[in-house]
Specification:
It is built from 25 helices and 20 strands. It is of the alpha/beta class.
């Protein structure tokens, strides 16, 4: 009985400690929610205020101030709010011998207060994108933020701060199902590749039409369709081939309208297909396949043949008839043709399919298979899989931009990654029954793919005084990417703890994945082993064309396109007048440094027009 009594007493004491921890040691945030008191946040805020202060850095000042605030907080009978905590920091800084830091801290608070209550500053183009693509009827900016964040105040705050933004379909469509509108939250899908029969080929066109009508783009692969001249058991006797059906799918894409954008389609084919040369050349005729992107699946065997200037066999066996079609080509000549057409016509793209299959979280799951890629090709997906996207604006995480003390706020960035993973999972759950096709609902429910990406990388590097493609810039980006992956995996594991792993999760397969083995930290692996993963895919690199333009930053992981461009204005004058307009990040730098001509910019300002191609490849590989 004595032992039982001691255990009971211990349990009661533990519960009391938990209650005190939850209710006594928490602060009240501006949105009314509470969080645990954190000395580290105070230390971090004070340290940042010393970075650009008159008398320079001080790593100990933050610890001293945080300890004083904690002492007051511990003695307080009631929970304090964020403003009261920050007031205490301000008072203790004023009482210290670092009035210069106090001044910077006060200015920082004022700046943040203005940001919380301020609308985005947008030029004519940015306003046009918001109005025409993403705004619902006459909703104002605050109503728009509330709709797309759906009550998640943390993600709403990050969006308002321009640190994170969902992709277009979420921005345009979230919540509209309540008004009876048939929409999807996913930007794009991959459909099951059409089977080698007429019925399935045209069923695929029907699936395309339905998906486009909900606002989604589509990727399909036509490698299963027999080559031109193959025997068929109908009046035609011979088929017109896989490539002939591309115009059917392109026509379908053009017929179905979507608000604020046209339908998007990717058609891919394997390099082993005997119709490969016809596929590569199809878009040299500017009247054909005008509503689709096209890409070739390349494998390692083919690339070795390219390197060695060897012949390569393209082979197809027709299941229905057993007919074998073989075509021998020169691999290097074909590769040069792909490159030349891409240079001349921007098509086709290349998908390094062996790498895609072998380097992902699901690579060792023998029941899993990628069926294709989405129209922008950043996300390979299984049949029915969807791109549920959002991107983090890296340029907003630079402290003291353009200065000698410019630094990347890795702690705030990691927090943003975690919040974004939570938010994308919320959108996934909300939209699970909104997908156009049953096969899409089933696939998304089984695998729970999300695609968290980045944008503004070129702006970030400039703010850090780094040249895009330099060794130091690549090291910075590697560091950010490693942290991003691990935080995303960590948050997915914690969500799995709360809500369960994705339905097709297989621990053994995940832990055999070379991608998982080589990139995930050991402590994060332990979390995954304990709880599993909520998502089979987590990260991607979307181009972010419209949303990055709306924010006034560089797109995706690309360099800035050009330092300036010429704009023509007709309506304000009797004759055409031309203006030189600078890219926003260039204009900002020139304004800060009183530069009037772009020729006076430092050499860190490179663009897609001037960047060495090897540096671009090194950065993006």
């Amino acid at each position: 009985m004595l032992i039982k009594g001691n255990i009971k007493s211990l349990i009661l004491n533990q519960r009391l400690f938990y209650i005190l921890e939850v209710f006594m040691k928490r602060i009240i945030k501006r949105d009314g929610t509470t969080e645990k008191f954190s000395k580290l946040k105070i230390e971090d805020a004070v340290y940042k205020s010393t970075i650009h202060s008159e008398h320079g850095l001080d790593k100990n000042l933050g610890k001293i101030i945080a300890s004083k605030v904690e002492e007051i907080y511990d003695k307080s009978e009631e929970s304090l709010n964020v403003e009261e905590i920050q007031d205490l920091v301000e008072i203790f800084l004023m009482e210290s011998n670092r009035k210069d830091v106090a001044k910077d801290y006060i200015l920082y608070r004022e700046k943040r207060a203005n940001m919380r209550n301020k609308l985005w500053e947008m030029d004519e183009l940015q306003k046009s994108i918001w109005n025409n693509k993403y705004r619902n009827n006459d909703e104002n900016f605050d109503e728009w933020i509330n709709r797309i964040s759906a009550g998640n105040t943390r993600i709403g705050k990050l969006i308002r701060q321009k640190k994170f933004l969902f992709a277009g379909r979420i921005l345009a469509n979230r919540g509209l199902y309540k008004e009876g509108v048939k929409i999807t939250y996913s930007n794009c899908y991959v459909l099951e590749p059409p089977k080698d029969n007429l019925e399935d080929i045209f069923d695929t066109a029907k699936k395309l039409a339905r998906t486009f009508s909900y606002g989604g783009g589509v990727g399909i692969d036509i490698s299963n369709l027999r080559p031109k001249g193959s025997k068929v058991n109908n009046s035609a006797k011979n088929t017109t081939g896989a490539v002939s059906f591309m115009d059917l799918y392109s026509l379908t894409t053009g017929l179905i309208g979507q608000r604020g954008r046209r339908g998007a389609l990717m058609i891919s084919i394997d390099v082993n297909h005997p119709d490969i040369e016809e596929f590569i050349d199809i878009k040299t005729d500017l009247t054909k396949v005008t509503k689709a992107n096209i890409s070739v699946r390349i494998n390692d065997e083919f690339m070795k043949a390219v390197e060695n200037n060897q012949g390569y066999m393209c082979k197809f066996i027709v299941d229905e008839t057993g007919e074998e079609i073989v075509k021998n080509i020169n691999a290097r000549n074909l590769f040069i043709k792909i490159c030349k057409n891409n240079w001349d016509y921007a098509e086709p793209g290349i998908l390094y399919w062996d790498k895609i299959k072998q380097y992902n979280l699901m690579s060792e799951d023998k029941t899993f298979k990628y069926s294709g890629v989405n129209p922008c090709a950043e996300e390979p997906l299984p049949s029915g899989g969807s791109c549920l996207l959002g991107s983090i604006n890296l340029s907003e995480f630079v402290i003291q931009p353009f200065s000698i003390n410019a630094t990347f706020d890795i702690n705030k960035f990691k927090s943003c990654v975690r919040e974004a993973v939570v938010a994308l999972n919320e959108v996934l759950d909300e939209g699970i029954n909104l997908h156009p096709l049953e096969e899409q609902k089933i696939s998304v429910d089984k695998y729970r793919q999300i695609g968290l990406g980045v944008m503004g990388i070129a702006d970030m590097l400039l703010k850090l005084n780094l040249k895009y493609g330099s060794d130091e810039s690549i090291n910075v980006c590697d560091f950010i990417a490693k942290n991003m992956l691990n935080e995303a995996v960590k948050q997915s594991a914690l969500l799995a703890k709360e809500k369960g792993a994705f339905k097709e999760y297989k621990e053994e397969a995940i832990f055999k994945s070379p991608f998982f083995i080589n990139n995930v930290n050991e402590d994060i692996k332990e979390l995954v082993k304990k709880y599993g993963l909520r998502n089979s895919q987590l990260l991607t690199i979307p181009p972010t064309g419209s949303i990055s333009t709306m924010l006034g930053i560089s797109g995706g992981i690309e360099p800035i396109f050009n330092l300036s461009y010429i704009r023509k204005t007709e309506s304000l004058h009797d004759e055409d007048v031309y203006y030189k307009v600078y890219t926003p990040i260039v204009r900002e730098y020139m304004s800060i440094n009183n530069i009037s001509e772009e020729e006076d910019l430092p050499d860190i300002f490179v663009s897609a027009m001037t960047l060495n191609y090897k540096e671009r490849i090194t950065m993006q590989q």
